[in-house]
Design goal:
5 helices; 10 strands; disordered N terminus
Amino acid sequence: MARKTNAPSERTRLRRLNQRGKYDAASVHAVLDAMPLCHVGYIRDGAPAVTPTLQWREGDHVYWHGSSASRFLRAAVDTPVCLTVTIWDGMVMARSGFHHSANYRSCMAFGIAEIVDDPAHKEASLEAMFARWFPGRWPMLRPMTAQEVKATTVLRLPLNEASVKIRTGPPVDDEEDYALPIWAGVVPLGIVTGTPVDDPRNIKGVTAPDHAVNFRAG
């Protein structure tokens, strides 16, 4: 069961700029629910490796998936992993190079990766991913075949050892530098949703559904 208190573990405790850290479930969930792209770190053949993939959260677990033939997923099963998600919110421009920074929201979760073996549970988890990141899409798709379910590996990680680190606001300069005639501030950054581009092999007359036309990331 995921930790409900604000107590960090030794691995998640922020040592530097610890005022930016949060350890409660609501803060962890908020970052995971805002960004599908994650990076999973693990050990493969005795060496560290990090792989990007899509993640989604169900309750107190974070899930990710890939091909059953994936060396990455096979290496991650039942082993310690570290899953991270970062949202880049802005470039922070200060009056000195030393104090330039970035505004961001990040989450780091540690634990043992668990494989979802049951086919029904696996398919339900994939449907949950679509509900989170492709809302409205799953009901219009053809059903997954048994072979497709078998060819897909789903892993999950309990969120009982996770932390969030957030930076917001303007630059923090040395007090004497505020008198310098140098512009300082924040350049906001974000994900932009564009206009859907039709697959050239769409059947004539098939148009983009509302969930594509009005898609909103995060």
